[in-house]
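Subject: complex prediction, re-run

Hi both,

The earlier run crashed halfway through, so I resubmitted it with identical inputs.
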Amino acid sequence: MPTNELLNFVGGAWRRSEASDRAAVRNPATAETLAWVPLTPADEVAAAVEAAANAFPAWRDTPVGDRVQPLFRLKQLLERDIEELARTITLECGKTYAESEGELRRGIENVETAAGMPILMQGTNNEDVARGIDEHLFRQPLGVVAAITPFNFPGMIPLWFLPYAVASGNCFVLKPSERVPMTTQHLVRLCEEAGFPAGVVSLVNGGKAAVDALLDHPLVRAVSFVGSTPIAKYVYARATANGKRAQCQGGAKNPAIVLPDADLDMATRILADSAFGCAGQRCLATSVAITVGEAKDAFTDRIVEDARTRRVGFGLDEGVQMGPVINPESKERIEGLIATGEREGGRLLVDGREGSVDGFTDGWFLHPTVVADADPHGTLARTEVFGPVLTMLHAATLEDAIALANDRAFGNQACLFTSSGAAARAFRHQVRAGNVGINLGVAAPMAYFPFSGWGESFFGDLHAQGRHGVEFYTETKVVIERWPDDWSRRF
Ligand code: NAD
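This time it finished cleanly. Structure:
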């Protein structure tokens, strides 16, 4: 058993898994093995769920004002350790230090928002729904809830769920991506230090077997998932077939429209960051840019210049703007999709497969890629790439551009660049996406708004974050009561 094997956190204690299989956690910039992660078997996952279930009755009965106190401490601890956490994210995930710190900031905002749980989970009531009869709605926690998270935001995405789940009175079991489990290990240590009682926050590392164990365990009442669309569909189907609530966020293929009246320098800067930032491994990355009318030439020249000059390298090095992709399989898949785009008639204005990074020959680097004249109905224009590849399409009018933007199964995000309020209004009304940006390239909602994917980007009803999170993790109880008057006259 390697000495740098990561641990599970079960019933308030750090435990070494008896797993027979483990996976290497590797630095995508160097291919160096950083740690080993156990692929926890079903019986150990069940033990974590059962320990969480044992903790539930006391946690549920803890007043909500007391339940949020560890969140105030967690916020301070996250601020204290933000540099170390950001370095860990860069080491295991590949993004730049600034991107790592940025995602932690968005995560912390969820801790802050959930600390308002005494107000967020308030119910409603009416006096005299009939003469002398009152009716109340209370929100009560579900019990044990689980979250399964992806590799691309190891600091932020667990915090889309954990603070809302526990502050509303649930016990929370987290199964992070096996590719980036080191950040989560640190995060859960901070939860321990923040003082959540044993069993309120648990961590099980692993892959498919651990996920299936959570989906099948009868004591898990709700499952939150973020990852690729095929797995999101699978998790949604299996969790709901087992009678659980599920909110499953999937992949994306995000379009952005550039109108001729846009500030093109601003549009280029923002869209280059959206397409190439985090090496394109954001579910809100712009993957298709649709120019309208004479925006085509001016925008193309600018984005090509940005793609050619973007500094690619190790995310902890000064001045680096883009890191590697997560693993060699991902690199190969992205290169394959670029080749497919070419076969479909696309012209490679910038070919990111050609670049290298001095001193990092073992890393899984790709440089930004821009493909023009791609087939709008082809594979490249419609498949999630999850890499630094921008496909350029063109339309004669805004209406045609919106039709092109809507011609895809995903609905995570759509953006528009314009100086026209009327165009912006038409776009936001007609576009089929749940997160919409106007003169913004990453339409990330703040913690107090729902992360609102549509179509193949989301399976479920209530989204992550804010009030949706509170509703997802609580069930409503409606109480109707009568206290006849003559009873009060007894005293
Ligand atoms: P992934 O689907 O491969 O893995 C996500 C989680 O599912 C991991 O914890 C993994 O261990 C587990 N998993 C993988 N295969 C499984 C299987 N066969 N059965 C059960 N569980 C399984 O996703 P990823 O590569 O880690 O993340 C990238 C994907 O996540 C992209 O598609 C991206 O668009 C999406 N994403 C979506 C959002 C959103 O909010 N919609 C946010 C971030 C990432």
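Residues 8-250+457-478 form a domain with the Aldehyde Dehydrogenase; Chain A, domain 1 fold (CATH 3.40.605.10).

- K.
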